[in-house]
Amino acid sequence: IDVFLARSLLEKLYLFQYPIRPASMTYDGVTHLSAKIKPKQQKVELEMAIDTLNPNYCRSKGEQIALNVDGTCTDETSTYSSKLMDKQTFCSSQAASNVSRYAAAVYKKGELHLTPLHGILQLRPSFTYLDKADAKHREREAANEGGDSSQDEAEDDVKQITVRFSRPETEQARQRRVQSYEFLQKRQAEEHWVHLHYYGLKDSRSEHERQYLFSQGHGLAENTELIKSPSEYLMMLMPPSIEEENDKPMAPSNVLSMAQLRTLPLADQIKILMKNVKVMPFANLMSLLGSGTDSTAVLRCIQQVAMLVQGNWVVKSDVLYPKDTSSPHSGVPAEVLCRGRDFVMWKFTQDRWVVRKEVAAVTKLSPEDVKDFLEHMSVARINKGWEFMLPYDEDFVKKHPDIVQRQHMLWMGVQAKLEKVYNLLKEHLTPKKQEAQSAHLLLVSGEQRVNMAKAKVKQNYGQLEKEFQKQKAEMKSNDTSAKMDVSNVRIKEEPVSDEEPMDTSAFEGMNNGIVNGLHAEEDSTDSINGHLSGGCIDRVAQELKAFVSSTFKKQFVLTLSELKRLFNLHLASLPPGHTLFSGISDKMLQDMVLDTGCKQILVPFPPQTAASPDELKVFALWEAGDTYDQHRQVLLEIFSKNYRVRRNVIQNQLSQECGDDLNKQEVDRVLK
Q1: pLDDT, tens digit, for every residue of 66-88?
Q2: Beta strands at 527-528 and 518-519: parallel, antiparallel or unpaired
Q3: Among 3, 40, 278, 594, which residue has the fewest nearby CB atoms (within 10 Å)?
C-alpha cells in the first residue's frame, strides 16, 4: 500500500472525542447551535440542542432545571428561553500533550493518505448553568434580607476605609505570582473566544474541506519525507534522545565508567573512587588507576581525601558530607555529621570492633545516621558488634612507615578535637581488646551449653541423692499403711531412663528456677529428679488426667506434638513448685490420653510426608457424651482408612451408618 503525506490541513486538523451520547441528542448539523474556540489554549466550547420531543426526555426534570437557572422571568439573559432545558454545553480538555505521533488516515483506491493531528480534544458536559442557578438563589436571598434591613441603610452609608500602600514586588515574588494557579487562570480567561460556524456532515463545504485530507500532489517533491533510505527512515522513527545526552554527568560520580574516569586528573580520579568505594587498600587503588601511575603521586593525592585506618584508606567525612549539606534522615548539618563519622573512624583506629549503642550515646545522632557511618566501613556481626570490613594491611604499614607516622599524628589531632567536643572519658579513649577477648570467650554454641548443663547436673547429683534418701526414710515412717493405685502413672525410678522427659526447654524463661522439670526451691520437696512420694504420685495423676480431659473436650482430635505443646503452655501458667513439674514422659502422657476415653487413630499418611513421628500420632476423643458421638466415631473410622476424603463420601457414609440424613450444617459441625 502506498502511503502519502497530506499537508493541506497541517496545524489545522483536530480530533474531537465526544462522550457517549444520550438518546435525545444526535451529533448532526441540526443539533449544533453554536461553537467557539480559544486557539492558544486549544479550548473548544460547543452548544448542542436536545430533542425535547424524544420519549426518553424527562420533561418535568427539564422544566425544573430551567426554573432553577432562569427563575420565573424570561429575558435576553435567560439561558433557556423556552422554559425548558433544551440544550447542553460541552467543554473540551486536552487528551494528550504531545500529539505529534498521531495522524488521521484516509484509505482510497489502494492509497493511504496521512494528515498529522494538531490536537486531540475530549468534550465533556459543562455544568455552568448550575453555578448560575446558585447565583440566582443567592441574589434572591440577598434581596429578601435587604427589604428587612432598610432602616439600617443610612447607618451603612458611612464606612471607614483603610488605605494600604503595596510594597515593591521583588523578582522572586513576581516569578511565584506568574507561576501561580490564579495567574494562569486569569490569563486563560483573558483570551477571547473565536466564534465558529458548524457545517453538517453532508454539507457542500464539508465535502470540499474533506478533500484536503488527500495528498494534493503525488510527485516526489510533495513527499520527500517519505523517500528515505532504510537507515534514515529508522532514525526518523526512533530519533536519539537529546535529553539523555544532556543529562549525562560530567564526572561519573554515580556510575563509574573507567574509560571516562581515566580522562580526568589523578586527584579527581582518586576522589571519585574513594567517594564511591569509601574503604580501599592501597594495592586495590593502584590497580584501578592503571599501570604506569606513579605511587608517590597517588600517596600525595590520597592523603587529601582519605585517612589511614588499620592500614587501609577510608574516605574523609568532609568529602562525603560537603559544607552546606545536611543528613537525609534527620536534617542534621554536615559539620555535625562529620564529627560523628570522625569519631567512628577514630574508634576503628583503636579496635576492630565498635558497638553501635556506644557511638549513638557519645555522638547523640539518630540511629539512621549512625548506621550509615558504620555501614561505610564495617560489617555487623551477631552478638559482637560492628567489625571493620577489611583486614589489617601489614604490607602497606611496613613499606610506608613515614605515611603511617604522619597519619598517626593526624589522628592524635582528631582525638584531641573529639575530646573537647564530646567530653570523652578514659573508658572511651582506651582500646577494649581485653573486653572483646573476654566477650568472645563467652560466646558458646548451643551444644556447649547443653554439655555444661549436663556437667552441672552430675555435680549436683550426689547432693540430691542424699536429700532423697533422707526424705525417703521420713516418708516410710509416715506412710507405711498408705496404698496407692499407680496403674495410670509410670514412675521413673532412676534419674536416667530409656524414656526421656518431655522437652520443656522453650519455657525455661517463663518458669524461673525450673531445671529439667524440677523446681529448685527448698520448700518444694514433693518431687526430686523423678522420684515421687506416695501422695505426690496420686496428685500428679489427678492433675494430668484433668488437663487431658479438659483439652480433648475442647479440641476432640490432637496429634502428640500438639498435645505436648499445649501441655508446655499449661506448665508455664502453673505456679512454681506445682506437682506437674516432677517430670512427665511422653509414655505417661500417651497412657493418660488412652485412659481418659480417647483412642489412637492410625491415619495412613503418605510415606513421603515430612511430618515428625509425634505429628503422625493422632489421638481422638471417642465418647464425649453428646448427640454426635456416633457420627464422630464413623468419621474417625473413615480417616483411619484414608488421610484425604471427599465431602460427599463422608456425607454418604454418615447417612448409611447412622440411618438419618444430616443437613449441611450438621455435617459441618461434625467435621469441625
Answers
A1: 888 877 776 777 778 778 888 88
A2: unpaired
A3: 40
